[in-house]
């Protein structure tokens, strides 16, 4: 093998997990190269809400959270029913014990954290469940990145002002209460202030990865874009190098350690059909996530798990073909989701992973759940935002394209949508009786504090409202996702496994690995939390096992 260059650690992927791994390894004294397939940095992390679910962290506790490692482990053991190799007791313990350490470590290097004290775990009533374990980065001025500002991954739709994911619950209700209006106005006025100061302010996912990029550069990490990983070079169960592509030419790098932090396979049509029996067009993740890490892992016979799973969620496909991941829209009153027979089949306000999985299960059982339909009554359309539609807005473009259906009766709406008329009528009549009583007897919508978080507190049950006042609206809903959650199996140190044994020097984190969260989504930030924490764990394990002789100051 003729090596073109040599590095201590090579990190693959520039999302949050890869950046934290690179920052940690560089701080520990290693010479670090971060390679990114795309010509922009940030991956799906830059398109995300930017929150991290980190139990027992000091930022949340300072904001009033009472938490402990024991309560966090109780919660994770209770809600993560999958007992597969990725969600072992040891991995959960490692996640909990190192999460708070990572938060403190990054803060001392320049990260500015904000707590989300009102954001519940997704099963807060379960043993060990809490409200307020999620944190996020503060607003960041992109000017601090210099030439790297133009290299940040951008979403299809940019927010007109910086916001916090822990306060986004107010956005769809902006015009329903003075409290929500004041909350949103505060964020809006802050955005105006930033503009007047000449700042290029950003937040949520973009803000998080931008600040991490700055921190990585300050630690001396070399970042190389348009440099996809093509292969791992392994000898005698030990990593000795990688092959990347640079300027369309194979390029061989000698290294002692590799941390894989690339995306999943959600945008690979063939792999999606193979493992999920659906296409890739409903995913909200980065288009570059083509399963490169999985295919390389399979070539080298690495252990994999959870390949049939993703970070599911009900998704509307916009008239331009782009996906719109539905979070708050389905939780608010005066709406339900039904299959083509007109039947409700899940709690519309539950965790998006559970809701998306329910859609897939219903499709397998009844064959008429893809697409399903979100039915909205006039008061939903008049009170709340829906995607980019302001309250009371019913754009003719959307009606003419057929994306949004409208009718003056439930029967006519059912006919327009191809929904069984009698089935929808019976479902809505039954649902309206639940509204009368304030209790969803079928699916317990509104019973959980998580349901209520995105509901409307002006209602007796914040998630229930009658569907009887015309006009009525409908939008097709599909089982989309934020990314796949299956891939390489790693142990509690982040080491990639083959036949249950670690490959020396090879680590995996993020959506290219099998998630410690198993088949569920315990709380807000359950993707970014694990990818960053296990990136941190992996880099520290490299230091302790390969570079311990180096005298490095520790935080």
UniProtKB/TrEMBL annotation:
Cofactor(s) in the UniProt record: FAD
Keywords: FAD, Flavoprotein, Oxidoreductase
Flavoprotein recorded as keyword: yes
Matching InterPro entries: FAD-dep_OxRdtase_2_FAD-bd (IPR003953), FAD-oxidoreductase_2 (IPR050315), FAD/NAD-bd_sf (IPR036188), Succ_DH/fumarate_Rdtase_cat_sf (IPR027477)
Ranges for domain FAD-dependent oxidoreductase 2 FAD-binding: 8-528
Keyword Transmembrane attributed: no
Name the UniProt record assigns to this protein: FAD-dependent oxidoreductase
């Amino acid at each position: 093998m003729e090596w073109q260059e040599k590095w201590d650690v090579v990190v693959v992927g520039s999302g949050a997990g890869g950046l934290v791994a690179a920052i940690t390894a560089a701080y520990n004294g290693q010479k670090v190269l971060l390679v990114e397939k795309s010509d922009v940095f940030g991956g799906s992390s830059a398109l995300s809400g930017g929150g991290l679910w980190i139990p027992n962290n000091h930022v949340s506790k300072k904001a009033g959270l009472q938490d402990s490692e024991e309560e966090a482990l109780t919660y994770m053991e209770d809600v993560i029913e999958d007992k597969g190799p990725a969600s072992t007791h040891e991995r959960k313990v490692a996640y909990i014990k190192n999460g708070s350490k990572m938060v403190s470590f990054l803060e001392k290097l320049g990260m500015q954290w904000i707590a989300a004290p009102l954001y519940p775990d997704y099963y807060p009533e379960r043993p060990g469940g809490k409200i307020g374990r999620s944190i996020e980065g503060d607003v960041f001025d992109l000017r601090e990145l210099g030439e790297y500002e133009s290299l940040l991954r951008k979403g299809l739709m940019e927010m007109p002002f910086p916001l916090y994911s822990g306060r986004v619950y107010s956005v769809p209700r902006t015009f329903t209460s003075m409290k929500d209006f004041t909350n949103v106005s505060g964020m809006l006025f802050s955005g105006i202030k930033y503009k007047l100061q000449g700042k290029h302010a950003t937040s949520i996912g973009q803000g998080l990865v931008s600040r991490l990029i700055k921190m990585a550069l300050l630690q001396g990490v070399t970042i190389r874009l348009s440099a996809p990983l093509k292969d791992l070079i392994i000898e005698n169960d030990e990593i000795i190098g990688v092959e990347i592509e640079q300027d369309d030419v194979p390029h061989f790098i000698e290294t002692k350690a590799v941390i894989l932090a690339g995306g999943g396979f959600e945008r690979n049509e063939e792999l999606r059909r193979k493992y999920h029996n659906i296409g890739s067009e409903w995913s909200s993740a980065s288009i570059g996530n083509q399963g490169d890490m999985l295919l390389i892992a399979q070539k080298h016979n690495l252990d994999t798990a959870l390949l049939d799973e993703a970070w599911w969620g009900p998704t509307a496909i916009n008239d331009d073909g782009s996906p719109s991941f539905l979070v708050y829209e389905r939780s608010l009153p005066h709406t339900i989701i039904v299959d083509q027979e007109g039947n409700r089949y899940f709690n519309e306000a539950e965790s998006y992973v559970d809701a998306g999985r329910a859609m897939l299960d219903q499709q397998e059982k009844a064959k008429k759940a893809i697409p399903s339909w979100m039915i909205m009554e006039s008061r939903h359309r008049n009170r709340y935002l829906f995607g980019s539609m302001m309250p009371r807005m019913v754009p003719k473009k959307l009606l003419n394209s057929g994306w949004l259906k409208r009718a003056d009766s439930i029967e006519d709406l059912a006919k327009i949508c191809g929904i069984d008329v009698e089935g929808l009528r019976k479902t809505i009549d039954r649902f309206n009786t639940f509204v009368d009583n304030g209790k969803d007897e079928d699916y317990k919508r509104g019973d959980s504090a998580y349901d209520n978080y995105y509901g409307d507190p002006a209602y007796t049950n914040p998630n229930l409202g009658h569907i009887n006042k015309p006009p009525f609206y409908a939008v097709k809903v599909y089982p989309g996702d934020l990314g796949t959650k299956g891939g390489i199996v790693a142990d509690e140190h982040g080491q990639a496994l083959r036949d249950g044994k670690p490959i020396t020097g090879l680590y995996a984190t993020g959506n290219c690995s099998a998630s410690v969260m198993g088949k569920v989504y315990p709380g807000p930030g359950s993707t970014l939390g694990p990818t960053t924490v296990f990136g941190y764990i992996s880099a520290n394990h490299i230091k302790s096992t390969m570079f311990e002789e180096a005298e490095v100051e520790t935080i």
